[in-house]
Write the structure tokens for this entry.
Amino acid sequence: MLSAQPLTRSDLLLLLRPVNSVVLSDRRFVHQARLWGLIGALLFFAAIQIPAWVSYLRPNLRDNSETAKPSEAQLLAKTVEDSAQAAVTNVPEERSLLSYERLAISAPITWQVEYKNKEIQRHLENGLVHIKDAAEPGQQGTVILTGHSSNYVWSKGDYKTVFAALLQAQVGDTINLKHRGILYTYEVKDVYEVTPDRIDLMNAKSTVDLRLITCTPLGSTKKRLIVDAVQTTPDRTKNSEFSGGLIKAESLPKVR
């Protein structure tokens, strides 16, 4: 009769080898899955930012020797934006258009939009948004306009990256705005970034006639880019008095 022999250490290792192989294989699979998941997430994030970067780079890539394809806003103005004034002069009196020629920005404006995120987001689908209770062009106050810099590619509207190039704004730039049949021209005086809690910027400042707001950096709502400009024509001293109330807000517009 055969007697049972105790298992040696080498026997145990031999028996456990398949188990160890399976465990190691599983761990390797998990690590590879995580790696490919991370790579996939990075590629997805990069892909959805492509439209914003195209808009951001457009001013640098634009060939002035060729006539650019008219945008929707330029078609509304019945002209191709080969000069800022030509782009805004022919806008129907009941419509408004902002043109920032150096940055290839051109978009219609919806006026007096309530400071509610849902309302702002809905009207941003059609261009730029003017915040209710802020001054309008020709009034002694600050015209506050906001627009998307890098909204999601699957979001509605044709202006998801209208302010992407605004990140390249420079002091001394010219901005044109046609409103109620009058052409207003502004000169950029300051460009800076702030945190979203700077709600004081939602109210009028005597030295700022136009304030543009968007999110920065591209693809983020971490900070806000502010572009302040002063009206150069018509004469700002002849603007009418403005008695608008304070804009109540918990943070600056979240427009991404």
User: Anything to note?
Assistant: Strands lie at 97-100, 105-113, 128-131, 143-146, 174-179, 182-194, 210-216, 223-233. Residues 135 and 200 are 15 Å apart (CA to CA).
